[in-house]
Amino acid sequence: MNSLVVNLLFALSWVFFFGEFNALTLSSGFVLGYAVLWLLYPLTGGPSGYFLRVWYWIRLIGMFHYELVVSSISVFIDVITPKHRARPAIIEMPLSVKSDAGILLVTNLITLTPGTLSLDVSEDRKTLKIHAMFADNPEAVCAELKNGMERWVIDALER
Amino acid sequence: MAWILQIAVMISSLLIFVTVLLAFVRLILGPSLPDRVVALDMMTVAIVSVCGLAAVQSGDSAFLDVAVVLALVGFLATVALARFADKQILRGKNQEDKRG
Amino acid sequence: MDVPNQAAEWKTNIVAGLFPVFLSALIFSWFLTFIPSVADGVSTRFGIDWIPSLGISLSFFIDGLSLTFALLISGIGTLVFLYSSSYIKNHHHFHRFLLYLFLFMLSMLGVVLADNLISLFVFWELTTITSYLLIGFSHETHKGRHSALQALLITGAGALAMLAGFILIGLTVNSFELSEIILEADTLRAHELYAPILLLILFGTFTKSAQFPFHFWLPNAMAAPTPVSSFLHSATMVKAGVYLMARLHPAFAGTDLWLWMLTIFGATTAVISSILAFRQTDLKLALAYTTLMALGTLTLFLGQESGYAMTAFATFLIVHSLYKAALFLVVGCVDNATGTRDANTLGGLAKAMPITAIVAALAAMSMAGFPPFLGFIGKELKYAGALGVASEPILVAGAVLVANSLMFAVAAIVAFRPFWVSSKTTYPKQPQEAPFAMLAGPIILASLGILFGIYPDIIEKTLVAPTVASLLGNIEQSKELKLWAGVNLPLILSICTVILGLALYLQHQKLRPALDGIFAKLPTFDQGWDKFLLKFKDFAAWQTRVQQSGNLHQYMFVVFFVVFASLATTTALKNAIFKPPDFSNVTWLGVGLVLLIIGAAIITTVTASRITAMATLGVLGIGVAIVFIGFSAPDVAITQLLVETLIVVLVAIALLRLPNLETEAGQRRPLDAILAISVGSIVTLILLSVLSLPLDRRVTDFFEQASWPEAFGRNIVNVILVDFRALDTFGEIAVIVIAALSAYALLRTTTPQSKK
Amino acid sequence: MNSVILTAGTRYLAGLLLIFSLYMLLRGHNEPGGGFIGGLIGSTGFILFAIACGTEDARTALRVPPQTIAMIGLGIALIAGLISIFFADPFFTGQWFFLGSTETEKGLPISTVLIFDIGVYLVVFGSVLTLVFAMEEEI
Amino acid sequence: MSWYLAAPLAFPFLTAVLTFLIRSSKVGRWISLAGNVVLLVTALLLISQIYKEGILVTQMGNWGAPFGITIVADYLSSAMILITAITATAVSIYAIADIDSHKEHLGYHALFNVLIGGVIGAFLTGDLFNLYVWFEVMLISSFGLLILGGSKEQIDGGVKYVTLNLISTILFLTGIGLLYGIAGTLNLADLAVTVPNLENQGLVSVIAVLFMIAFGVKAALFPLFFWLPASYHTPAFSVSAIFAGLLTKVGVYALIRMFTLIFNGDLVFTHTILLWVAALTMITGVLGAAAQNDFRKILSFHIVSQIGYMIMGLALMTPLAITGAVFYLVHHIIVKANLFLVAGVARILTGFTDLEKIGGLYKSAPLLALLFLIPAFSLAGFPPLSGFWAKYILVAAALKINSWFIAMIALLVGLLTIYSMTKIWAEAFWKPHPSGLSPELSQINCKNQFLLLTPIALLAALTLIIGFIPQPFILFAETAAEQLLNPSLYIAAVLGNFS
Amino acid sequence: MESLLAIAIGVLVATSVYLMLARNVLRFIFGLVLISNAANLTLFVAGRLTAGIPPLIKKGEIAPVGPVANALPQALVLTAIVIGFGLFAFALVLMFRTYTTLGTLYSDEMRVAEPREDTVI
Amino acid sequence: MIDFVAALLIFLGGLFSLVAGIGILRMQDVFIRMHASTKVGTLASGLILAGVAIQFSEVIIFIKVILIILFLLLTAPIAAHMIGRAALHLGIRPWSASNQ
Ligand code: NA
Ligand code: NA
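^ inputs. structure came back:
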């Protein structure tokens, strides 16, 4: 992601913190954000250039909340019903998404979707270990995730 | 404050309190270190809710600030504990932590 | 060391050695100038304020008594310095020796001249310190150190008691000036504190003057070089006690307590020490014990109030100083010349050391009490004084007779036998006459003995009579000093003394083993002292082991026990709880919250898993944070949560390298549990009591009113932190910085030891 | 901690925490927050950083040793307290200056009290990091 | 005006910051010394100002008492500050030679100066919670100094020191909570006004006892002193010197302040306890010293014993007794710090502090012997050194009100003090070195010799001056006692027209 | 509620005393956390409790309207918490270093500074 | 109306919280428990906070609440990942019905 974008995000969050949107808060937020980025650049590596895809973001955020609610309800039901319906297993899913932000987003979303929980990314960043509640068919679970969450994230971030 | 809200806050407080107690029981029972950490994490999130309820109850948004802090830093304890478990394994000292 | 250097050192030693001689001679002559006025009954007082707010002045007083002492001290001092300049000049601590000895002399002069009791005490203790350093002069031997410590502790103990006595005198008569205290004698004698004061002071003087049963330190102090012994035991240190009793005589004498204390202790000391002297084979020790005898006798006389007794006291004081100093110096010469002081080996030295032999003989005859020596006059007066005592004159005279006879025998053993009785011994060194500097002192002192014996008037009018005047208040009671007083009871007793003494001397080789047999069976005070010290050390070690056991658990148990016991006792005694607690505003959520906190605390305590403990601590932190949230303290809650988080983070890091907790099975600690519950209960009780009272909120009210208008802040808590009480916060951040630095230092600090 | 997810998350969280901490510092005089809280939050950002990427990276990012930051903070707090003496007030008396004040509004307050609070922030921030980094490097 | 009080408080911290930021050890040590000299000057100015004007008060932040924090200096405070500055200056000279660059790099100078700052803060504050804060400042920097070096002994001693002192800290904080809970104020002068009028005086006594325990641990009273002999023999000598001189005295100061100003309503109860505690402290301390065979351990136990004397003065609570306590405090700080410094030189020369392993110093290092004798004999109470007057006044005060028992104890303990001080003398100085070495001062290079011996000589000179010219010091202590026994002076100075 | 908290404080004190009396100094550390919390709560409760009204001044007011919670103890507790943290952190590091240096966490095995008599002589 | 919606949200939040609590106590293994805590717990807090925001109906409060929720959504999965990873490394096997 472009450093500039991050910087702007930081500036905006600063404005949010203050709750007052004006030139002073925005500019001071920008300066602060810049300073913070400067502090952190040993971590972020170098700049990368991608356009902000507003639509994909909105879709992502929307789906995300939807999945959160649905998954919660499914767990809700499993919890309050005496019988355990789950057939859990740990499955390994190949990762297409490359960037740090992408991996973060994918794993977070998978965690927040029904029946799946991301446990770990391998050191070579190519596979993701997932704990699935209903893992009678691991390939199906994998495919669903790749075409769902991972697709959306790649659309939003990496295309 | 409307009575309905008052009742909701009261009930919700009670429910969250029960949640905290349940998580506490899990924390004591373990059996593994991750179990305890999950329980503690759960409690932290519950306290975020408590802050929200306190804000409604008092009509003072100051408590939301507590919630913001908690949401940000509560995570740190979880990370530290989880890492503790992880590193213990590398050091081959996991006997106790497996048992809890 | 090369030769020229040595020569140079020798030269500086000569100069250094003669310097104190010159100084003390100067002092001596200065005191001589007071003789005319003192003889006329005029005393001189001068001084400056020292600590006016405590009534302590640096004041001095010269009358007959103090002048006599001052002259003896500075006079004999001069001779001793002269002697030392030769005797000890090659010692590597020669300069230190001279310094100590000179300081000692000055302190002694201070003691006898001081008018203010506290000043007197200061000088008194200075003599203690300097004599400690002098007795311990041969500090590289165990005996030297042991004897110095013994002298220090015994005289020190006495001194501290005496100090209490002095303070009490000050409180009863409202002055520390001796000249004023004497005027208040009647008040003092009638005061309810008279007895304690007297006993405390006598404890001080008896220890200093080595009265039985505190006598044993003095012979041990012979570890010091000869000039020291000579000086300490003839005229000075040990006579400080006698001086003080004499000084206080006008204020204290005249009661039964005074009479009996001094008589009994004096007589006992005189008799026992003369027997002890008799059995010694070491010449120096024999002399030391006769010093004890002299001190006993002097004490005995001070118990009285008659003119004879006082005259006897004054005369014997001078006599004894002269001959004892001379004999000590002579023994030093002998020791130096032959390398031994053993009475059984020494003999026939008169040929090799004729002058020494004659001097010894002169001094010894004074000691034995032959006419026309001053010693004879002294002895006559002693008998006269003894016969004139207020009660039990026969017993006292008998004691004096025994003591004198033994002294006669000892004089012969010490000063006659080594020189005039031949012996087959070969000495480690070829005996040789001592150099002049060493002989000068004994010659002068011994000559004075005979001079004053033939012309007693010289000292009678100048020293003896004024001394008696100081003791009794008027000069008229002083008795005349004369060689021939006609045939009277004292003369008969004198003759008995000579006969008895001669017999003892002739039989002394045979008597000694018998005496040794008796004494070997008796425990000595010296051994008793050592045992006492050992027992004391054991006791100290035991009590320290019990208290400072090195066991942290014990330390903390004691601390918590003290907390509980004292708080509980005070609460009960002072009836601190008088309102029942108020549980009216308790809510169910509150109960639940408290249960959560209590549960977390208890689980932290009982769990054997450190992970559980860590997690429950986190829960506790959350619980307490909810309390802060619930009771309107968002800032505190945030801080609490952040700090709890950091604690968990830090513990989680630390535990990675720490071992697991032990399992609690079989480790129940019922006693600890009882104490813990007790402490917790008392805290709750006190807190409940506190909370039952109303709170005065005016400080907070001020903050609420001033926060925005005056300190421009809406968050009152923060305004208190950074403005109203910013100094607290400053201190607090200093704590944080230093905690971090300290912890950092602790982790990074290394020593070779810990690297291993 | 070689966790890709944590490292990626830290990148945002640490920045957010730092910004949030400054926010808490600046508004502390009027709402919950202040130097302590700010400093503590700020330090958690870097602790997270240290846990995710190691203390070496965290120290590099910080550039200045945390002890030095803490000490500078102490110095700033002290000086903020002493400034008032030059205005003939007892020490630690707050000195207030209002930038752009008008008749109705006081304007933007700049005060020794704020400087003091900044000192507090730096102290807490630096000290906590000193501690945590040093401990981290021990294991 | 405010300067007089602010400067002694601010300079140690300023020095600490500077020494730490300029991390070059060579410069840092001189800054530290310079800072302490400046501190000494400010302390002198303060005391002279107090001499002229009486009790000095400034209200921190210009918030009037009892609302803000009051900084107040009376005779006692200013004397303590001056002595602190003197000791700190002496020790910072000594430290240049004693403290290695490793310790300096880890922040020795910062820790040291913050410690001094904490001590001065404790003496100056007129606020109970602020006193707690300064106690903590002092405590935490003492932790750091104690373990600097990290030897096994230090760590072990540190554990006991830290644990027991933390308990005391918690007790102190709890006490503050309780006292605030009934009185609603933290200002000492205001508490002095409020507390006597409280409804439940029994509770006041309970809280007084709690404070007595909390400060009792700090002051190393019987039976709470364990942490002291467990740790004081372990750190660097400069550090144990400053600890021995100052730290326990702050506890004593706090006891004196609290039990003359605030808890003076139930003297028969509180001060009787104090009297017994004083007696037992004196005895156990001196017996402990008698049982030890290590230079520094003997000195450490003596601290305990000597604290008993000061508490005895407080317990007797007469003008003369308080005079004695104040005089004793001042005397003891100088003497005790000095003895530890001497122990340090002895250790440098002989390599040990165990008396069985050392000896011969009298012969080979006569100057050191002399410099030892002065404080040692002063401590033992030999006249005319400072310790004699201190003991004299206390014993006189006891006898004056017929407290025979405590006077007897004080004298007896004096004798035992002589016993154990001469043990050091006999073993370290008189006795020949067990392996026949003759450790001469010339083994130390010239510069270090100067740095090590100058402070010792200065402190010894001070001991002699106090001993030979005690009148001004006693007068000062008398005035201090007068102020302490008339809390109304303090209250009027602090509360002014607020009262 | 004050009374209830007084009881909770008592329990905290009791448990922490029990922990501090343990031989394992790690338990002392846990006890220290507990007792610090107890002391902080004592200070907090001593200022009496007010639910739901933080000591903040609303915009537009110059002083709190109506009663608010007692701010002073809150400030003191905040200070005490932070100081307590500093002390705790040092104590923790000390125990850590103790273990790495002396090889034990048991206080009765820590006998370097005060050796047992029999081992010295 | 606003009160009612807020009350509903708060009540629902309490309910979800309780369910998360029960889940954490009675689910079979640590992984499944995490399903409960991450999803349901987060949702519960979100609901309550949404209720708070609606109740206050102020922009600042809205922003704060959104921030809190965002933080939770960001941190909760990372925390879960950390715990899960530790559990994996500890060698904890997922529960499976066949084992019972
Ligand atoms: Na968490
Ligand atoms: Na979660």
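Strands of chain D lie at 96-99, 108-111. The radius of gyration of chain D is 18 Å.
thumbs up if we can close this ticket
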